[in-house]
Structures are given as C-alpha cells and as structure tokens.
Amino acid sequence: MLEEDSDQTYENVLAEIQSFELPIEATLRSVYDDQPNAHKKFMEKLDTCIRNHDKEIEKMCNFHHQGFVDAITELLKVRTDAEKLKVQVTDTNRRFQDAGKEVVVQTEDIIRCRIQQRNITTVVEKLQLCLPVLEMYTKLKEQMSAKRYYSALKTMEQLENVYFPRVSQYRFCQLMIENLPKLREDIKEISMSDLKDFLESIRKHSNKIGEAAMKQAQQQKTFSVALQKQNNVKFGRNMHINDRFTEERNEIVLKHTFEEEDENEEEVLTVQELVDFSPVYRCLHIYSVLGDEETFENYYRKQRKKQARLVLQPQSNMHETVDGYRRYFTQIVGFFVVEDHILHVTQGLVTRAYTDELWNMALSKIIAVLRAYSSYCTDPDLVLELKNLIVIFADTLQGYGFPVNRLFDLLFEIRDQYNETLLKKWATVFRDIFEEDNYSPIPITNEEEYKIVISKFPFQDPDLEKQSFPKKFPMSQSVPHIYIQVKEFIYASLKFSESLHRSSTEIDDMLRKSTNLLLTRTLNSCLLNLIRKPHIGLTELVQIIINTTHLEQACKYLEDFITNITNISQETVHTTRLYGLSTFKDARHAAEGEIYTKLNQKIDEFVQLADYDWTMSEPDGRASGYLMDLINFLRSIFQVFTHLPGKVAQTACMSACQHLSTSLMQMLLDSELKQISMGAIQQFNLDVIQCELFANSEPVPGFQGDTLQLAFIDLRQLLDLFMVWDWSTYLADYGQPASKYLRVNPNTALTLLEKMKDTSKKNNIFAQFRKNDRDKQKLIETVMKQLRSLANGMSQHT
C-alpha cells in the first residue's frame, strides 16, 4: 500500500515537472525531502518515463517518415532552380544596388534636407516666439532713447508678464530679465532729475505765473467795477455827488478800462502756457507704475515746502518800493497757482488738506512779514499801493479757493497805519497852509473872485452878499485851503477803504472816524502849535479864532460830503458824527487863552517901562507916559476884538484890567522897593485914575455898570486909605461888610506903611508931625502895631 502511494507521488512530481506551471526547485526538493531512497526511485521512475516518451517519439517519427522523405525529395528537386534563382537574385541585386546607388545618394540628400527643413521649421517657430520679445525689447530701448519713460515701463510690464515667460529658457531672456531692474532704476533717476529741473523751473517762473494770475484777476475785477459804474451812471446812481472827479472820472476810467482790457486780452497767459507740467506728470506716472508713488509724493511735497519757505522770505529792502512788494506777492501767487493746478490735474500728489495746511502756514508768515514791513512805510501813497496789491493778491488766491479773510483783517491794521501816515502828511500840509497865511480877511474885488472862494468853501452870509465890491470875507485864506485839504484827506482815506469787501455803511463809518482823527489830532495839534508860536500876535490870534468859528460851521458840510460819496442816508442809518465842534472849540479856547496870555505879556512889557521916582516930594500932575501908551495900545487892541464873540472880548478886557491892577499892586509891594514917599503915592494915584477912566470908557461893549472898574478896586481903596490917612475908619470898620476899605489887606497896608515910614526923615509930612505934634508919631506906631495884630490874627485864622 505504501509502495503504491510512493509511485503515485513520483508520477505526480513528473507531471508537475512536465507541466511547467510550478517552480521545478520546489518540486525536486519535495522528492529529496520525502525519504532517503527517494532519489533512486525517482530516477528509476524518470528513466521509465523517458523510455515511454522515446517510444512515443519513435512511433510519431515512423508515422511521419514518408512525408519527410517526400519533402526532402521535393526539396532536392528545387535545389537547382534555387541556385538559378539565387544567381538571378544575386545578379538582380547587384544590378539593383548599382542602380540604387544614385537613389541612395539622393535619398540621403533628401533625408538631410528633411532634417534641415525640420530644423529650420523649429528655428522659425522659436524665432517667431523670440522675435516679439526682441522687438519689444528693441522698442523698450527706443523708448528709453526717446525719453518715453512711462511707455518704457509699460513695455517692461508686457515683457515680464507676457513675453518673457514664453522664452524664459533662453539665455538672452535671462540677460534681459536681469537688465530690467537696472533700467527701472535709470528711469527713476532720470525722472527724478526731470522733476528737479521742473521744480527749479517753476521756482524761476513763479514770478511770471503770479504776475499773469494777478493781472487776470485785476482785469476781471476792473471790468466788473467798470460795469457797475456804468450801470450806476445809467440808472442815475451817482455815488460821488459834489465830487470834483465825478462824471469825468467815471467816463475816463470806464473808457480806459475797456481799452486796457482789449489791449491785454491776448497778453495774459495761463499757467499751462507758461509752464510745461509734463515732467511732473511723467514722474508721477512712472512712480505710480513702479509702485513707489508714496516716495514721489513725499519728495515733491518736501521740496515744495522748502520752496515755499524761500518764496515767503522777503528781501530786506522790500519795503522801500512797491516793486519789492509786487515781486513778493507774484512769487507767492505763482507758487500756489502751480499747487492748485497740480491739485486739480493729478490724483493724490497734493491734496486739499495739504494745500490748506501749506496755505495756512504761508498766510501766517505773509501776515507777519506785511505787519513788520508795512510799519516801515511812511509814504501814504506807498501804503495805498501796498493795499491795492494785497487786495489783488487776496482776490487772486480767493479765486483759486484759498481763504483770505485774515488778509482783509490785516488790511484793517494797515488802514490804521495808512491813516497815521496820512495824518502825518496832512500835518505838514496844514503847517504849510498856516505858514503861508497872512491872517487877514480875504479881499475880493469882483463877482468872479467871490464865486471862486464860494466854490472852495461853503460860506453863506446874506449881509456880505448884499455888500458892494470890493468887500472882504471874515475868514483868512487858510480856511478854504483847510476845508479843501480835509476833503482831499477824505478822498485819500476813501481810496483805501475801497475794495475791502465792506458795506457802504462800514466805509462811511471808517471815513468819519479817520476824519475825526484828522480834526481832533492833526488839525487840532497844528492849530495849538500855531497858537503857541511866539511870532503869532494878538491880531493873528483874533483871526485864528474867527477862522476856527467858520471851520466849525463847515463841519456839517463835511458830514454831508461823506454821506454823498458813500451813498449812505443819515436819516436811515446811525452814523458817527464829526468832532469838529469840540476840536475847533478847543482850538478857539486855546487861542483865547493865548490872547489873554499875550495881552498880559504885552502889559508886562509896558509896565517894565515904568520909571517912578519913589522918593519924589510932589507929583508931576499928569499920568506916567508908559501908562498912557499902554492904555492907547489896549484901546487899539480892543477895537480889533470887535470881530470876536462878545464874551471873548469882555473876558480879554477884564483879564487885561485885572492883570494891570495886579502888576501895579506888585510894583508898590515889591520887596526890592524900600522907600516910598507920599509924592510917589500921589503920582501913582494919577496913573490909577487913568486906568479907572479907561475902564469907565467901556473899551469893550457888554459890561454892566462899573463891573470893569472893580478890577482896580483893591488899588483904589489902598491909595484912598493912604491919601486920606483914614486909619481910624479902617481900623474901626475892619472886618465889616460895609467897610469903606474892605478890599485893603492888613499885610498890604502894613508893608506899604513901613516903606513910607523909612522915608520919614526925608518926608516933609512926617517932619511936620515930629515938629508940630509928636502924638502923630505915636499914632503911626500904634497903627502899625494894630495892623500887625490884624495880620497875625488873619494868619492864625487861616
């Protein structure tokens, strides 16, 4: 049983080996691994299998042998034919080879041509791919050479984004790619250089740009004003009533304005025509393409701020001429006109916030400069031209959207300074008028001269009109001249007030205030200085008082004049009144005071001529010569005073008499005078009598009763006391309201009595007292003691 299993196993192994399905190594290993004698048995089985196969092969060969023999026989039969065929084939092959050599050559040529053609096609394809790159790069070089940098940058973008990726495998492309950053840097440097040249150019052209812009703004404004004036004239709104320039000036200005507009219409160039802005556009676009726009903006703004500081820095002598101010303004206008243009034609390079900040900085600097430099101006014409420049400057920049309210506020400060310069100028004018005046009433010989004076000064006097020629105006020549110059001052002040964008009411108020300053400060000061001048005599002072009276009356006409030129109705609008009334009253009071002073000085001059012999025994029997001369002088002076207001003449007369009385009293009581005789007292009494007669003669009408004589009452009572020697009455009635010698002061009586006592040895009266009645001497001593007692009582009471 085991033997059968072993045989079956070997048969299976042989079947597996013959099948070639399983690996033979594993099959053989299984044979050798089963049992020790398996190899031998297997070999036996294998030999048996081989013999079986050989038998099968032999059977098969035997079965097919006849066929094989037949085939060999057939093959042998065709051998000859095969050899013949071989010869033929060989011959044919030889002939074919010989014939095909040329074809081979041509075929090789064709192959080479096809290869070349393929290569050429490939090259053409590659070239067609590379040529656009090369063309674009060539175009880039041409654009660089032509300085078309913005286009060059766009070309670079196309190369990088479109063309280079197609040919990136080629070396030339890598070189181009490596060269592009350098080209970009070159473009940045070149464009920045162009920008610097542009900045330098606009710095140099700022003056022309500003001049053109200001001229254009001025023409527009002049044209508008001219049209307004034309409309005013057309509709009958003549704003300058009683103006010496009115209609003729309007027509001339209007005609000149239109002619000037026609002449300059083509001359005014725009900022685009004056400056080539293409460099800044190119540079902005270039930096935008390069993605570095912020750097460009910062650089541009930084440089422009530096230029702004340079433009805002004035020249040291700018205040000397109007051209200096004009250059300063035109440069600033040019700067901001350029910035405004850049603001509107570019996006983001400058912003409104940036320009506003720059303008506010500039405006503060401009105001500081103008405030400082305008203070140096002493010529009102220069200040007026400066004002006109500031107005045009402000109007120009306002037209570009810059706020200029602070400039007009500054103009109000300059207006005060302008008024100060006008006041100084008119102070000189007034002084010249006063110097040239002869301080005499204006004589007129015919109607024409009368009308000339009336046209200059609003004088109305029906009595004077009725008088026949020749006749005289009461005022002197300075009055119409002063009136004309006040109107001229109003005109000059009005020139500054125009174009300040203020209402007519405000202008009217400004004119009135400036005119008040002229009257209260300048004219009043000139009048006071004139009145105090030593060479101005009493006659001149009288004429000055008359002049101030007429000037005071003319103030209402000046108010009407201001109302007319400003077209403001006094009935509907509260207006400032002119202070001429108080001004001329002050001057008149000063003149009156100066009259009193000079009159007293003249009296002192006469009194200084007095030459009394204080020890004379008998009087001369007539008044002193100096006193009669003084009285005659006073009569002539008071005759001149008839043209003055009654109160002034009365005050002057009273003041003169009181001063004369005081001077005579001081002469008696002079400490240097030691001795006075009764004869001198009598002579002095004669002089006082003449003074009383003069006072009683009413040298100036208007005094009531003996009011003027009371100026000499102290002297009269004192002299009467000594002439009558009525000491008992004086001492008895002293202190009584009804006392005969009420005005005699004990100290005064004592002083004079002591002077008379010292002359007792030479005085016949006292000598007679000593000889005839020694009791009289004791009486004098007693009187003197009582007088001392009264004087001491007065001092203690005081």
Provide structural commentary.
Component of the exocyst complex involved in the docking of exocytic vesicles with fusion sites on the plasma membrane. Residues 45-214 form the Exocyst complex component EXOC6/Sec15 N-terminal domain. It comes from Pipistrellus nathusii (Nathusius' pipistrelle). InterPro entries: EXOC6/Sec15, EXOC6/Sec15_C, EXOC6/Sec15_C_dom1, EXOC6_Sec15_N, EXOC6PINT-1/Sec15/Tip20_C_dom2. By secondary structure, the protein is mainly alpha-helical. It has helices spanning 2-19, 24-34, 38-145, 149-163, 171-234, 246-264, 271-274, 278-289, 293-312, 322-345, 352-374, 380-399, 405-436, 447-456, 462-466, 478-497, 504-532, 538-553, 555-566, 580-608, 625-640, 646-668, 678-696, 713-724, 727-733, 746-757, 764-772, 774-797, and strands at 442-444, 471-473. Strands 1-2 form a two-stranded antiparallel sheet. Residues 235-266 and 761-770 have low confidence and may be disordered.
Essential attributes:
Exocyst complex component; 798 residues; two-stranded antiparallel sheet; exocytosis; mainly alpha
Describe this structure in a few short sentences:
Belongs to the SEC15 family. The chain is mainly α and 798 residues long.
Question: What is the secondary structure topology, with strand pairs?
Answer:
Blueprint: H1 2-19, H2 24-34, H3 38-145, H4 149-163, H5 171-234, H6 246-264, H7 271-274, H8 278-289, H9 293-312, H10 322-345, H11 352-374, H12 380-399, H13 405-436, E1 442-444, H14 447-456, H15 462-466, E2 471-473, H16 478-497, H17 504-532, H18 538-553, H19 555-566, H20 580-608, H21 625-640, H22 646-668, H23 678-696, H24 713-724, H25 727-733, H26 746-757, H27 764-772, H28 774-797
Helix pairs in contact: 1-2, 1-3, 3-4, 4-5, 4-8, 5-6, 5-8, 5-10, 5-12, 8-9, 9-10, 9-11, 10-12, 11-13, 12-13, 13-16, 13-17, 16-17, 16-18, 17-19, 17-20, 18-20, 20-22, 23-24, 26-28, 27-28
